[in-house]
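In the current project phase, we have settled on a layout for protein records. A sample record is reproduced below.
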Amino acid sequence: MPKKILFISHDASRTGAPIILLNFLRWFQDNTNIPFRIILREDGELKPEFQALAPVNIFNIKNIPNDGLIKKIFFIPASRH
């Protein structure tokens, strides 16, 4: 079975991290044969550009129970003070 990769971004806004991920994914697509998918925590104006590269899903955190593992992973506090 071929390997697949899942890339995750906090959103698809026209800001630093999503732009860097988008540029990396363009390079990745041009230089590998590995299929991938993209999960966005929130929508944004770069979504069509992500969709041009691979299937994109918006992760709706509101549908996950508060005690769920996925919610815990996505909402780790930045500071534990």
The helical segments are 16-31, 47-51, 69-74.
